Every structure is written in structure tokens, then in C-alpha cells.
């Protein structure tokens, strides 16, 4: 037989209400005790009946559980409230975001963008800023050109000095070359003069033929 589910609503009959309260209260306390034993949980229950009677259950000391509950509530409130340092960081972050946005808008205006909302004075100030920036750019460019020209002049001077040194070395080499040729020729002549004389027979060599005598 299927058990009918009881509709959850207020019981009008006072006697039935008290009986149900007593049964459900004992069952609730029993379940709380089982939960505390099985899961090593700290549990406290406070129940007031319709007549104002107090019923309570605690797995340990009721006062300790209540104090722990109050401390936990205070910690939650402190965690939900941002600290002073966090507030300062948020304020600094917002200020930096505004400054970045302002600088970005100024850069766009310097590029000729977002000029529709500017007045005459603001446009004049923007023109002065552009002229000042252009002057600084030209000055920097001239300084760079002067540095490059100075470096090129130094390089030219160094190359001229190296070229002059090479010409001097070439003249020294050319001047020493004939002397070496003359010394070689003198050595050859001396060698030929000191060679021993050779004897040559200047007389004519005659061939004598011996003919046989007739018998």
C-alpha cells in the first residue's frame, strides 16, 4: 500500500499540532546527533514551540557554538567590506585610467582627429603645441646631421692619413729596388772575374795519315 505524502502546511488542530511538533522535534534532534557523530560536525539547534517553550540541542557547548557563529559572522562582514588599501588602489587605478584616456585624446588631437568639440582657444593652444613640437623635431634633426657630418669628416681625415702613409711606404720601396739590382750585378761581375783561366790549344791539329809502302 502506497503511503500518502502529508501536505506541508500549518496544522489547524492544536492537539495534532503539538503532537506533530513533539515527534518532528525528536526526529530533528536525532538527525542532528547522527550528523555530528558521523561527520564530526559541531551542531547547535535552538527551537521555540508555538507556546514559547525553548528546546535546544548542541553537540558540544551551546555558548561556544554561538560565539563561534558570531565570530564567523564578523569575519564575513570584514571580508565583504573592502580594506583601506584596496580602496586606495582602486582610486589610484581609476585616476590612472582617466589620465591615460586624457593623454590618448590629446595624441589623437595632435594627429588631427577628434577636433569637432574644440573651441577657438583650444585650437590655438593645439597649434602652438604643434609648432613647438615641430621646432624640437627640426632641432633634433639638425643635431643628428651635425653629428653625422662630424663623423664623416673624421673618417675622411683618417683615410687621408692612411693614404699618405701608403704613398710614403711605396716611395721607400721604389727607392730601394735599383740598389738591390746594382748589388746583384756587381756580385755577378765579381764572380766571373775570379773564375780560373781556361787553357785553349790555339795550334792547328794536323791529321797524319800513314800510307803503306809498295812491295
UniProtKB/TrEMBL annotation:
Compartments where located: Nucleus
SMART domains: MADS
GO annotations of cellular component type: nucleus
PROSITE patterns, alphabetized: K_BOX (PS51297), MADS_BOX_1 (PS00350), MADS_BOX_2 (PS50066)
Gene3D superfamilies xref list: Transcription factor, MADS-box (3.40.1810.10)
MADS-box domain segment(s): 1-61
GO molecular function: DNA-binding transcription factor activity; protein dimerization activity; RNA polymerase II transcription regulatory region sequence-specific DNA binding
Record's compositionally biased regions (Polar residues): 175-196
Coiled coil (UniProt feature): none
Keywords, comma-separated and alphabetical: DNA-binding, Nucleus, Transcription, Transcription regulation
Name listed for the protein in its UniProt record: SVP4
Organism from which the protein derives: Actinidia chinensis
